[in-house]
């Protein structure tokens, strides 16, 4: 068949007519990992914030402050809450931006940069949250000791007895440490695994880029 | 270990990508479909790569897996293609009466091959790649005689597509 022979001739000289796919593109195809990891970071952070919001809705702090007879605390608390949500929203926006960046980059160098940037953002986010937990606990203790009538008996005892004071401070520090530890572990599990995978991708990219 | 595997896969595929592009060219119609099939084949190759032992050349192994992927995918989308097929056929009935330059005739041949079914395309691919009938038969899991018969039928079919009136 003459047409088929013609096709064959064309076929065999045709090798260079295809738009070549780069190694990095192949890498991205078989992985799609980086962008899916960053997507998960975004999804998990949103879920996490939603869960915290639901929990905080379930516990109404206003009653507690009213009991303390210091209504001005409610305002301070509101300011703090708004500030906290503001910061977290900024983080979620950054996660979203990272996701868009990573899913659209085409060059190895840029992708590596974006991965490092994403890692940093997540690390800042985790440290901010851990810092906020410690800060809230300390503030909570200070408020309890300054204003809560239930604690005033303990306060009198502490004033008279150095040993009790030492024990109380010890317990408070231990409480903070335990909370810090629990949340550290929580974040480590939640984001640590994702970050580790992201870093493995980074190392792989570095090898290809050499 | 697995990282080295990955690196060697990406490198070899990059070097042998034309074979996959060629399969995409036979099985798809248009740039986007070409890219989609290329990506799908890449993923399937990567999944199958741990089983590749290097007793054949990478390119040989790759085109077999790629053909299987294309055949499977093509089967799934067979129905949606029928309208394009019809338009294509109309097009040829009008155009074939003129005397075409070589380039134009090659284009028509590609269009004609595109109208073949999944297995027929695979046969044409291997024919164009100069594979012998032993290899064609082995790849498709049919007998050598059967492969020859099929190839002859395909030639007939292509002739009919190019010149439906038999002039």
UniProtKB/TrEMBL annotation, chain A:
Transmembrane stretches, start-end: 37-59, 79-101, 122-144, 164-187
Annotated keywords: Membrane, Transmembrane, Transmembrane helix
Name used for this protein in its record: Beta-carotene 15,15'-monooxygenase
Biological source species: Flavobacterium gawalongense
UniProtKB/TrEMBL annotation, chain B:
Cross-referenced SUPFAM superfamilies: Sigma2 domain of RNA polymerase sigma factors (SSF88946), Sigma3 and sigma4 domains of RNA polymerase sigma factors (SSF88659)
Domain of life: Bacteria
Keyword Transcription regulation: yes
InterPro entries in UniProt: RNA_pol_sigma-70-like (IPR039425), RNA_pol_sigma-70_dom (IPR014284), RNA_pol_sigma70_r2 (IPR007627), RNA_pol_sigma70_r4_t2 (IPR013249), RNA_pol_sigma_r2 (IPR013325), RNA_pol_sigma_r3/r4-like (IPR013324), WH-like_DNA-bd_sf (IPR036388)
Pfam families cross-referenced by the UniProt entry: Sigma70_r2, Sigma70_r4_2
Any one GO molecular function term: sigma factor activity
Residue span(s) of domain RNA polymerase sigma factor 70 region 4 type: 111-158
A Gene Ontology BP annotation from the UniProt entry: DNA-templated transcription initiation
Keyword terms of this UniProt record: Sigma factor, Transcription, Transcription regulation
Residue intervals of the RNA polymerase sigma-70 region domain: 14-79
Family: Belongs to the sigma-70 factor family. ECF subfamily.
Listed name of the protein: Sigma-70 family RNA polymerase sigma factor
